[in-house]
Amino acid sequence: MALSIIMPKAGMAMEEGTVVRWLKKVGDSISKGETIAVIETDKVTMDLESDYDGTLLAIIHGEGDVVTATHTIAWIGAPGEKIPASVEQVGSPLSSMAGPGAAAAAAGPAVPSAGANVAATPAARARAAAAGIKLSSVSGSGPGGAVRLRDLPEAKMVKATPLARKVAEINSIDLLGVEGSGAGGRIRKADVVARVGAVPSAAGSEPFAAGASVPITGMRRVIADKMLRSQQHVPAVTLVTRTDVTELTAFRDRMNAGGGAKVSFSDFILRAAAVALRDHPLINSVIEGDRILLRQEINIGVAVALEAGLIVPVVHGADRLGVRQIAAAARDLAERARAGSLTPDEYSGGTFTITNLGMYGITEFTPLINVPESAILGIGAIEEVLRSAAGGGVESRKVMSLCLTHDHRHIDGAPAAAFLGRIRALLEDCYSLVG
Q1: ω into 372 cis (within 30 of 0)
Q2: Domain residues for 329?
Q3: Residues belonging to the active site
Q4: Is-contact 349 373, C-beta < 8 A?
Q5: Element (H, E) at 105
Q6: Residue 336 forms part of a structural domain
Q7: 90 with 234, same domain?
Q8: Which of 92, 113, 134 is the last residue of a domain?
Q9: Which of 131, 253, 323, 339 has the highest Cβ tally under 10 A?
Q10: Is 133 within a domain?
Q11: For residues 23, 26, 32 and 37, what is the CA-based torsion angle, rounded to 10 degrees?
Q12: Ordered alpha helix ranges (H), 308-430
C-alpha cells in the first residue's frame, strides 16, 4: 500500500511549511532515513527524511508551495503502485500537480543537491554538509555502498549560515575554500556570492537589489504577520531610562580577563531582567481571553538577526541561572540559530524578550512586543557622557539606554517604570548579579 509523506509539524506552534527544494524526483528509489526534500518553517530550514523504503510515486506539492502541517506532500510505495484516488484528483505523476511549483517538481528538482542521490546515513549526510564534503567523492562501507560517518575523511568543520550553504550548494562551491567574513570566521552569503559573481535565482535566496521583486514568504511572512498583529491589537507604550554602566564595564572586563566563557553586556542585562521579572510578575504575564495569566516560568528570548529575518531563541528558566551560565546558553543558542539547527522547543515558550541594537550604534528605539508576550526590552549603545563628580568638577561616565515597551491593557506606566527601575538598579549594583 502506498504511504504518504507529510509536511512535518516541527513544534506545537507550527501551522504550515514551505517546500524549498525536492532532492528526489518521481521514480527514484528512496531508503528510510534518506533526505528527500528541504522544507522551511517560520523559524528554520530543515531536511525532510523519508520514514520508509520505496519508490517516490508522486509529488503532490512542488517547490515554493506552502503546505499545512501534517498534510500529504508526496507518496512512496512499490514501483507502479497506485496512489489513493482522492489524491490523484489533486495531482499525480501522470497529471498536472497541485500548487504553483508542482509541475517543476514532477519533472524533478531544477537544481539537484550535491550528493542528494548518494546513499548515506543521516549522521554522515549532516557531517558532510557541515564540513563541506561532497558525498559523491566518498566511498561508502555501508549496505549498497552507503556512506557512513566513519567513511568521511577528517576535515575542517565549516561555519556558515544556512543561506550561504544553500548558495554554495546550488553553485557547486566547496565551502572549505571560502574565507568567512562573519563573526568567528563564519561564512556569509556575500562570501559565497563573491566566488560566483552573483546570487543565483533559487528558493530561499534573498536578491535584495535595485529592481528586484522579492516574495514575502517563510520567516519574513511570519515576522510581518506577528508585527502587524502586535501593532493592531496591542496598545503599546515605550518607557526609556538611562543606566550608568561604568562599574559594570570594569567588572565585566575583570571577569573576562580571568578566563572561562566570555560574558557580554547582554548577558548581564538578561540576568538582571530575570531577577526583575521574579520581583515584578505582572510583566511576566499574558492576556488569555478576559483573564491575566501570570506565568510561573521565566523564559527570556534573545532576538538574533539572520540573513532571512529574525529569530528569538529562548533561555528557559533564566532566573535559575548565573551570569556565566546565561552567557554559555545564550551563545550556544545564537550560534545554532545562525546555523539553522535549533529545535522547536528552543525558540518557543518565551515569556519576555530582549533585543539589542547597541552594536549598530543605536542609542534609543521602540521595540515591538513579541506577541503574545506582554513586554520587550530594547538595549541601546553605550555612550561616554560628562557628569558632575561628587567632589566637584566633572567626570566621564558610561551610560546605556534601556527601552521597555509594554502592553498597556494590563500593565500601567507605574508598574512598568518600577520594573525598569529595578533592572537599572541591578545593573548599577552589578556585583549583586553574580551572588
Answers
A1: yes
A2: 220-434
A3: 408, 412
A4: no
A5: helix 102-106
A6: yes
A7: no
A8: 113
A9: 323
A10: no
A11: 30
A12: 323-338, 413-428
- Of 84, 83, 100, nearest to 26 by C-alpha is 83
Cell of 21: 527544494
Long-range contact pairs involving 210-217 (C-beta distance under 8 Å, separation at least 24): 217/18, 217/64, 217/66
247 lies in the same domain as 364 = yes
CATH classification of the domain holding 283: 3.30.559.10
One digit per residue, pLDDT tens: the chain, 435 residues? 788 899 887 666 677 788 888 989 899 999 988 889 888 776 666 778 888 899 999 998 888 788 888 889 999 999 888 887 644 333 333 333 333 343 333 334 333 344 445 777 655 676 676 666 777 788 877 656 777 766 777 544 567 776 676 666 555 566 766 778 877 677 877 777 676 543 333 333 344 567 767 667 666 777 788 888 899 999 999 999 999 999 999 999 999 998 777 899 999 999 999 999 999 999 999 999 899 999 999 999 999 988 767 889 999 999 999 999 999 999 999 888 887 778 778 888 999 999 999 989 999 999 999 999 999 999 999 999 998 888 888 999 999 999 999 999 999 999 999 999 999 999 999 999 986
Residue owning grid cell 561616554: 384
pTM over 0.85: no
| Closest-CA residue to 193 (of 210, 176, 170) | 170
Sequence-separated (6 or more) residues with CB below 8 Å from residue 277: 283, 284, 298, 300, 319, 351, 352, 419
Burial level of 80, CB count in 10 A (0-12/13-18/19+)? exposed
Q: How many domains does the chain have?
A: 2
Whether 190 is covered by a domain: the verdict is no
Domain limit, last residue, from 76, 93, 113: 113
